């Protein structure tokens, strides 16, 4: 690469970073992705993970632009669009088969494999922890210095922060940090649920399931290997709940009793929902012996947050507009952002040729416009997400959620829990 060639770095190999990298690769624009994690093995990517509902105008649009539509379909079909809502006792308040929505779902691991397998090995540098980001101006433009500690420092003309909630690149652009939402999340998995626990498989159905009450929630999504991903959401003002409660450091099976006996947690939930949680905790520990429970506080960035534009650095995905998962918008925005950013980059690249200074000058107004439209777009999605969270974890989240589906579907199919 000549010294005048624009040097582009993408920080983070999540959906946003991988999508942008693949789009640049398909148009022969040089780039490097830097990722903190070590390269995942195929065995690791085959494990069940959270399902992503990709939307036509965002996630699927990016998949099409990447030329992966046919391959993408091979990874779908493990989670239906069907939705069931119950109260805290397991009484079904709403059930549908997803007749009005045919949006395909793909697991997070499968999406990572789909995107990364299409990139050249040299395009991603795994195991690179970004320690610091700094900038300096020259006569020809603005340069960004990335400090990777033992891997050394490197200089780039454009750095895109796709490095998530606690983005190092974001620190270069703004002092605003994510804030705690008041909700803790515990993640567990039941593999082969249909054969091992057919009554629980029947309870949650073949799509998504939510049991809500007391401002808490037990939610499930079907996934690979006939699995069910079980999420336990606990509302608490204590950001350090995992430590103060003594849950941190224990196994999932080890925290089961506390979760199910404490009336401030799930102690007052019905027996069938408690059984679902108990089985999920036991199965998680059986699959991952000795592993500590996956509990974390949920964070979000201020709705509509923006930053002062800088010529040579920008943000996409969670680094730009972190929000909770209540509207299914996070992954979709994380794939739409790079699609629109790519269009600005390729326009500047084709106009400036291989001259870095000219590339920066041409890209600058395009980048500013991209950021303004991204902030406006994500603000509306964040408002929707926040509103959904208020509904789900309000005084009567189950009824509110069922009524929401009633307004959409025009009916509620109710039945009683079997326990």
TrEMBL record:
Residues 8-174, 315-353 form the FAD-binding domain. Keywords: FAD, Flavoprotein, Monooxygenase, Oxidoreductase. It comes from the Eukaryota. GO terms for molecular function: FAD binding; monooxygenase activity. InterPro entries: FAD-bd, FAD/NAD-bd_sf. SUPFAM superfamilies: FAD/NAD(P)-binding domain. This is FAD/NAD(P)-binding domain-containing protein. The lineage of its organism: Eukaryota, Fungi, Dikarya, Ascomycota, Pezizomycotina.
């Amino acid at each position: 690469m000549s010294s005048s060639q624009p040097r582009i770095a993408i920080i983070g190999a999540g959906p946003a970073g991988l999508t942008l990298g693949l789009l640049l690769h398909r148009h022969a624009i040089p780039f490097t992705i830097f990722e903190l994690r070590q390269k995942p093995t195929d065995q690791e990517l085959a494990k069940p993970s959270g399902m992503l509902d990709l939307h036509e105008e965002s996630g699927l649009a990016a998949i099409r632009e990447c030329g992966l539509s046919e391959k993408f379909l091979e990874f779908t079909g493990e989670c239906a669009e069907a939705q069931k809502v119950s109260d805290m006792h397991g009484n079904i308040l709403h059930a549908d088969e997803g007749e009005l929505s045919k949006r395909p779902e793909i697991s997070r691991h499968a999406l990572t494999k789909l995107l990364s397998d299409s990139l050249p090995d040299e395009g991603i540098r795994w195991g690179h922890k970004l320690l610091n980001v700094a900038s300096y101006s020259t006569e020809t433009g603005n340069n960004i210095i990335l400090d990777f500690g033992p891997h050394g420092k490197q200089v780039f003309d454009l750095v895109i922060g796709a490095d998530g909630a606690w983005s190092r690149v974001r620190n270069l652009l703004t002092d605003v940090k994510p804030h705690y939402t008041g909700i803790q999340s515990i993640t567990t998995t039941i593999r082969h649920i249909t054969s091992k626990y057919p009554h629980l498989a029947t309870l949650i159905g073949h799509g998504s399931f939510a049991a809500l009450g007391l401002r808490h929630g037990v939610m499930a999504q079907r996934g690979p290997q006939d699995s069910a991903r079980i999420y336990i959401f606990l509302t608490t003002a204590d950001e350090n709940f995992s430590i103060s409660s003594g849950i941190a450091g224990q196994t999932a099976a080890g925290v089961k009793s506390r979760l199910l006996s404490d009336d401030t947690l799930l102690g007052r939930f019905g027996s069938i929902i408690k059984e679902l949680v108990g089985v999920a905790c036991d199965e998680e520990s059986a699959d991952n012996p000795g592993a500590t429970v996956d509990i974390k506080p949920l964070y979000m960035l201020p709705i509509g947050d923006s930053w002062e534009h800088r010529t040579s650095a920008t943000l996409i995905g969670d680094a730009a507009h972190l929000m909770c998962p209540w509207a299914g918008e996070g992954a979709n925005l994380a794939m739409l952002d790079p699609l629109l950013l790519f269009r600005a980059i390729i326009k500047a690249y084709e106009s400036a040729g291989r001259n870095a200074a000219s590339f920066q000058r041409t890209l600058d107004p395009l980048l500013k416009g991209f950021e303004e439209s991204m902030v406006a777009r994500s603000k509306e999605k964040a408002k929707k997400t926040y509103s959904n969270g208020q509904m789900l974890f309000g005084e009567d989240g189950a009824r509110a959620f069922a009524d929401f589906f009633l307004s959409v579907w025009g009916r509620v199919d109710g039945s009683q829990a079997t326990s």
